Structures are given as structure tokens and as C-alpha cells.
Amino acid sequence: MKSITILIADDEAEIADLIELHLEKEGYRCIKVADGQEAISTVQSHSIDLAILDIMMPKLNGYEATRQIRAQHHLPIIFLSAKATDLDKITGLVSGADDYVTKPFNPMELVARVNAQLRRSKQFNQPMQANKLALEAGGLVIYPEERTLFLYGKPIELTPKEFDILYLLASYPKKVYSAENIFQQVWGDAYYEGSNTVMVHIRTLRKKLGEDIHKNKLIKTVWGVGYTFNG
Predict the structure, then answer these.
(1) Is 135 helix (H, G, I), strand (E, B) or coil?
(2) Which residues have CB under 8 Å from 117's CB, separation 6+?
(3) Per-residue pLDDT at 215
(4) d(CA 129, CA 164)
(5) Whole-structure pTM value
(6) Residues of the domain holding 136
(7) Residue 184's domain is classified under what CATH number?
(8) Dihedral through CA 30, CA 32, CA 37, CA 43, nearest 10?
(9) At 29, phi and psi to the nearest 5?
(10) pLDDT at position 183, please?
């Protein structure tokens, strides 16, 4: 059975050691690095199942490291940062992270979040008959297995969470999802700031889909209720 390898990228050695201690108790193998550039190199040279990244790191910050990792890999990423405002968390999630934990943190809570992200990743990557079928609507074609999509034949680059939101809505056209429901299904959590996070993701998703120039909006707002796919 393949062992699960987790990357810990933090320039504070004491924190990295603490995380490693608790994750190894769970049976995970850990690789520790101290800067963003080394984090990218490690993901490229090793089989990493999940990454825990600090945001304020030397050489390359967590945002940029995530952007470069996301260009080629779809592993779960958890930000661990002392930046603790709601805006910081939203920025982290919008930049491509799957979860955001603030310092100081409870090591057992972090382990629980790691376990949750790995479960979700495993469930999504299991081959299912439904995943082999492309979704087509309103000039949009979504290939869930490859996690790619095309709008009128043009490829559209989305972050993992933007893709998950769009795929969720497109899978059940006309069904209305509240922001809280979207957050719970896509992130697998129930943050009190979830509504704002979903709103920001929907806004950037609409911009990438060109809804400011196309008359037929694919994502429709049902005021006071939530969002629905209008393909």
C-alpha cells in the first residue's frame, strides 16, 4: 500500500517539527522545506499527496507557490498562516488553497483537516462512470476527468475550487444552491465566512466565463436564495 506523503513548507522550524510529529503519529510521511521555491521543487520531484504551506515564506510566498503548483498539479493545499482576517482567508482560498488554518493553531484540528482533504481528494479521483461523460450547455463543455473546460471552443483556466463550483452547478441545472450549501459541498466545511468566500469565487468565475460580455449568463443569481446554472 502506497504511503501518503505530505509536504510541510514553513520557515519556522519549530512549527514544521510540531506538524510533522502529529502527522507521523497518523502514519503519514512528511517532507519539510523552508521556502516557497523549495516547496515547488519538492512537488515536482516527489509524489506529494497534500501540501501545507505558510504564506509569508522566503524566496517565494505561499500565494505564488500555490499558483505555480496549481499550473501542473491538483493536490490538496492547506494554507497555515498568522494572517487571520476574513479578507486574508478569502484571499487564500481564492488563490487556490483548499483550506485555511490560522496560527496559533491546534495540531489535532490541523490533522483533522488534513484527513478531510485527503478523503475528499480520494473520493473525487475514484473512477466513476458519470465522470467519463462531458457536460455540455450554453457553449460550455466540461470534462470532469481531465478537469478541463471549453467555452465556445476556447479553453478556460480555473482554480480547483472555481472548477468544483461550476461543475456542481452545471451537474444540476436549474437547481438553486445557497452560498452556504455550495461552501459545504465544495469545501466540505462550514465556516461562518463561507458566504463571502463563495461570492468572491462566483465573481471571479463569472469574469473568466466572460459573463460581462456575453448576454446569456451561465450562472444566475436568485436574489435572496443563491445561485443556479442557466445553461
Answers:
(1) strand
(2) 50, 76, 78, 98, 99, 188
(3) 58
(4) 18
(5) 0.72
(6) 129-229
(7) 1.10.10.10
(8) -10
(9) -95, 135
(10) 87
